[in-house]
Design brief:
There is one protein chain. By secondary structure, this protein is α/β, with parallel strands linked by helices. The protein is 44% helix and 10% strand. The strands form four sheets. A seven-stranded parallel sheet has the order 5-6-4-7-12-3-13. The chain has a seven-stranded parallel sheet with strand order 16-17-15-18-19-14-20, with helices on both faces. It has a four-stranded antiparallel sheet with strand order 2-1-22-21. Helix 1 crosses helix 2, helix 21 packs parallel to helix 23 and helix 35 crosses helix 37. It is globular, with a radius of gyration of 33 Å. The two termini are 60 Å apart.
């Protein structure tokens, strides 16, 4: 296992590291050593998670040994308020704890799998919720606060139904000091609990006090209640936020709330139920554990709040009612709700929740499975407004807003209009500053899409002196990125509200997608700025496009090339849409599928469309949020006011934030296309606004070097076709059967398609069956011959060694046992002590396409790639001869397949035909160079896989035979073409003689 010395730290890495990975690890260690915060962007497929783990754990190990193998109990009696307060002298001497967070548990599951691949074995645990960890037969069926309260109730010894799993935790952890020494996930904890008896939830809570590294979702750190429950020494600890591109939004939402009048009405009803239940218990069984007067007071306060909100004067329905953040204390003060009384009110709500749950269990035990107590939302709101420290300074970053919404029958109460009372936080740094107060060592934020970084750092109100925008590890020929400002007819693409409704825009966009659907193999993703525009265009395409020369609508022409799937608005229908898309990709009778989706939707955020699942991404516009949305408008006003009050300093304005939010959504969407180092694909920006420098500067750095703006649509079609044609030859081919992976989900390895010897009969039959339409831009029928110069690809060099991208940051000699590396950004040294040449990105994990948890995985069988293409790439003279022998079976007896194979054919005729075909192949091999002959073989393979049309391939092969000394081959090749294509062949031959290239005709 290679060991790299980075800034004096020996980092043991499981594979040979790329330059960009060494730079990434160097930045991580610099952040840890300097106690500085870091923003680190590295595209998906560059191994950032593995780099982050190895660098962080190597640094931690340099400070002292891990806690594994020792029954060391650190601060077991430290919890609750103590963990939030100042540390004692003995606690401050502890080694730092690493808290590694990500967006979802499925992503954390993948991080744990990456940890298993390293040599490091720190003591670790994954924190999960009761919904994931509880094994009690009754409590495990509940959800939310209902489940939490039921768990607390059953863990009390005085309870008759005392949980038997809870008391076993302490003894089990004590008797198993090695628990957590090896990487364990949530599923492992659950299995331990089921087999040995201890509660997995409380077992993880016990373990987290003594671990070296703790894994948890974001909300365990951001939510004050969850954070308070952690027994962690925050001073000097390391906080890592992986997949942090949405962190600012999560922080702001966690500190905000919306209170609809319908929810408030339900809370009033529940408060009345509590009054009735408490009175009934007191009268019937003399039970005085619940005071009905407290619930009556709660109801009265909620009624007053409802009345106060309904009395707010709203002059403009569009603008609503807005006040500065501190106004909320004035409003609640009128109701006598202050810091002192809020605590009592929260306690009353907790009693009300327990009372309602007990009543539900008594009346209908099954009812508790779906019980939702809405009063809990009032408790959460009070905790956001009235912080435990009694400080109201954070209110200046808020705005109070009341707006009227469309009245529904379910949202009305006694004829009152439906309103939403909101308290919105416009400074995400409110949540992050809590960590700065606790003197954490470093905060590292990393993701594949953090750009633009300036706005990201400004939003979180933290200083990030260490930043990195890493390049990708792919080659230049693996990505095509282009800006398409105009459509086939020359009409400009612009999805802004001024032009998006015009028929010309929708017609050109539809015709463009028809062309791209024909060019792009397998999966195609089309992202719209909004659901409105998505539905608008699809409705138009389904009813438009029929002309005198074309009887099909645009939608029918798209469906001819790709089977469509449309992203649903409802989350419940999304798994079905994904399943449908996967099934259409697997359908061998089609040429792929197209997924119409929206930026910021589930398709753009959560799924991994690697390989055939996403060969190209089309972005149809810039997803600007609605300017008249109250939250957006107030956010912009807030930032502009901040900018005016801080003149002379570089701050984020409302317009800059507005633009950069849209750009970040675009970066997230286009990140679906390249998912690992062997992947290839195209990114197509169909909006003229992307040609402006300010928008291009906000696109992810790894895409910018590949980005090119095309003034003519024909140039786009030509270069894009050439890209996929060359990629079919130079890039490893994956099987068509595919699965879509949600980050963190694990699947079996994707196998490579077998390039079997092309059986003569099957090959030519498929060739004959292929349409002879020439390459063109729909709905034009003009053709475009290919240039031999543009087609040439050195396949053997491409496949024999895949080099990392962008070696400008570091100089690295992979052949030496010991090298020294210098980062151009700083003077720190990186040394290699040991060296093994092993791929960093293991194909078992990075090249896979696995389904998310809600999709049943399908087992796909595929033969191994032990065939002609591998032999063709060996480069030896012996194998080249063997290729010629094998190729005889592909072209011999062509006359028979062409229609001469009657029952009167004799074996002698077959032998003569075989000799004739063999002789021709020998002559072809002699006249063509090694690269050209491999190219010739590639075109035959493309025909077999239906990657190219017969007309296109004929032109390309004729281009190979067009040199003066190869003209005899050009003439003889006609003998091996089916008679039905002789006319087409003669037509191309005539064009070749008169002109080497034909321009693309547009409508």
């Amino acid at each position: 296992m290679p060991t790299y010395k980075i800034r004096g730290i020996n980092v043991e890495f499981p594979f040979e590291a790329y330059d960009c990975q060494l730079v990434y690890m160097e930045k991580v260690i610099q952040s840890l050593q300097d106690r500085s915060n870091a923003l680190l962007e590295s595209p998906t497929g560059t191994g950032k998670t593995l780099c982050l783990l190895c660098a962080t754990l190597a640094w931690r190990k340099s400070l002292g040994s891990f806690s594994t193998g020792r029954n060391a109990i650190r601060s077991q009696d430290t919890g609750g308020k103590n963990s939030e307060g100042p540390s004692s002298q003995s606690e401050s001497s502890r080694l730092p704890t690493i808290i590694y967070t990500s967006r979802t548990h499925s992503q954390i599951r993948q991080v744990v799998q990456e940890l298993k691949r390293t040599i490091y074995r720190p003591k670790m645990v994954v924190l999960g919720s009761r919904e994931q960890l509880c094994i009690h037969p009754d409590v495990s069926l509940l959800h939310g606060k209902t489940q939490t309260n039921a768990c607390h109730f059953l863990c009390q010894k005085r309870t008759k139904r005392y949980c038997t799993h809870f008391p076993r935790v302490s003894e089990f952890v004590k008797n198993n000091p090695g628990l957590g020494d090896e990487p364990i996930d949530i599923e492992d904890l659950v299995n331990i609990g089921k087999q040995s008896g201890p509660c997995p939830y409380y077992m993880s809570r016990e373990l987290h006090k003594v671990v070296d590294i703790l894994f948890a979702p974001y909300n365990y750190l951001i939510d004050p209640g969850n954070r308070k429950s952690l027994s962690i020494e925050w001073a000097n600890s390391i906080l890592i936020f992986d997949e942090a591109h949405n962190l600012e939004g999560i922080c702001a939402d966690a500190a905000s709330f919306d209170l609809p009048s319908s929810l408030l009405t339900s809370c009033i009803s529940e408060a009345q139920n509590c009054v009735d239940l408490a009175v009934s218990r007191r009268d019937q069984s003399n039970d005085t554990s619940y005071n009905p007067d407290n619930f009556a007071i709660l109801k009265a306060l909620l009624l007053k709040l409802e009345k106060r909100i309904s009395e707010v004067q709203i002059d403009s329905k569009e603008l609503g009612f807005t006040k500065p953040g501190p106004y909320i204390y004035e409003l609640f003060g009128e109701l006598n709700i202050t810091h002192k009384t809020a605590t009592k009110l929260i306690d009353t709500i907790e009693d009300a929740t327990v009372l309602l749950e007990e009543d539900a269990k008594t009346s209908d035990p099954q009812k508790t499975k779906g019980t939702v107590n809405r009063l809990e939302s009032i408790s959460d709101i009070l905790k956001i407004i009235f912080k435990s420290d009694g400080n109201d300074a954070h209110a200046k970053y808020y705005r109070v807003h009341v707006q009227e919404v469309e009245v529904k029958s379910s949202d009305t109460f006694k004829g009152k209009a439906s309103r939403i009372f909101s308290w919105w936080c416009f400074n995400p740094g409110v949540a992050m500053e809590e960590f700065a107060k606790r003197d954490v060592g470093s905060i590292i934020l990393t993701s594949g899409t953090l750009s633009p970084m300036d706005s990201f750092a400004e939003e979180l109100k933290l200083n990030f002196p260490i930043r990195l925008e890493n390049p990708h590890v792919i080659q230049d020929n693996q990505l095509w990125a282009g800006i398409v400002p105009v459509g086939p007819s020359g009409h400009p693409f612009n999805s802004s509200y001024r032009t998006r409704d015009s028929p010309e825009y929708k017609l050109n966009l539809g015709n463009s997608i028809v062309n791209f659907a024909r060019i792009v193999p397998d999966g195609l993703l089309v992202f719209f700025p909004s659901y409105y525009l998505l539905n608008l265009c699809i409705d138009f395409w389904k009813n438009t496009g029929v002309t005198s020369t074309n009887s099909s609508t645009i939608w029918e022409r798209i469906c001819k090339h790709k089977l469509p799937v449309v992203e649903p608005r409802q989350s419940s229908l999304f798994p079905q849409a994904i399943d449908d898309y996967m099934a259409k990709l697997r359908d061998n009778s089609t040429t792929g599928a197209v997924f119409f989706a929206v930026c910021r939707g589930k398709v753009s955020e959560g799924l991994d469309f690697a390989d055939q699942a996403g060969r190209a991404v089309i972005v149809t516009g810039i997803p600007f949020a609605m300017r008249n949305d109250p939250k957006i408008r107030l956010k912009r006003e807030f930032l502009d006011q901040q900018a005016l009050s801080q003149k002379g300093s570089k701050v984020l304005t409302g317009e800059e934030w507005y633009s950069q939010q849209a750009s970040r959504a675009v970066n997230q969407a286009v990140g679906r296309v390249i998912r690992h180092r062997h992947d290839h694909g195209a990114i197509i920006f169909c909006d003229e606004r992307f040609s402006k420098s300010n928008h291009q500067s906000q696109i992810s750095l790894w895409i910018r070097p590949h980005l090119k703006c095309y003034s003519k649509f024909g140039d786009v079609v030509f270069t894009l076709t050439r890209f996929f044609r060359d990629a079919a030859i130079s890039c490893p081919v994956k099987q068509k059967s595919t699965q879509i992976q949600e980050p963190g989900e694990k699947s079996s390895r994707d196998k490579i398609i077998s390039l079997d010897k092309l059986d003569q009969d099957k090959f030519l039959k498929s060739l004959i069956a292929t349409s002879d339409k020439s390459w063109s831009i729909e709905p034009s029928s003009s053709s475009l011959p290919c240039s031999s110069e543009l087609r040439r690809v050195n396949i053997s060099s491409r496949l024999s060694q895949i080099l990392p991208a962008n070696r400008s940051n570091l100089s690295f000699n992979a052949q030496k046992q010991t090298s020294s590396l210098k980062n151009n950004n700083n003077n720190s040294n990186v040394e290699i002590k040991k060296h093994e040449v092993i791929d960093l990105v293991d194909e078992e994990t990075s090249s896979e396409l696995s389904a998310p948890y809600f999709i049943k995985k399908r087992k796909i069988e595929n033969p191994k790639n032990e065939n002609l293409l591998q032999k063709c790439e060996s480069g030896t003279r012996e194998v080249k001869k063997e290729i010629a022998v094998e190729r005889r079976t592909e072209f011999v007896n062509l006359e028979t397949v062409r229609g001469s194979s009657s029952s009167n054919s004799t074996s002698l005729a077959c032998e003569n035909q075989e000799k004739k075909g063999s002789t021709f192949l020998i002559q072809v091999r002699e006249k063509l160079s090694d690269g050209e002959y491999k190219e010739f073989v590639g075109f035959m393979k493309a025909l077999k896989s239906k990657a190219m049309k017969i007309g296109h391939v004929l032109q390309c092969i004729m281009g190979l035979f067009s040199a003066p000394d190869r003209l005899p081959l050009l003439q003889r090749f006609k003998d091996y073409i089916p008679a039905k294509y002789h006319t087409l062949y003669e037509e191309y031959l005539e064009k070749t003689k008169t002109n080497d290239a034909v321009a693309v005709d547009l409508l």
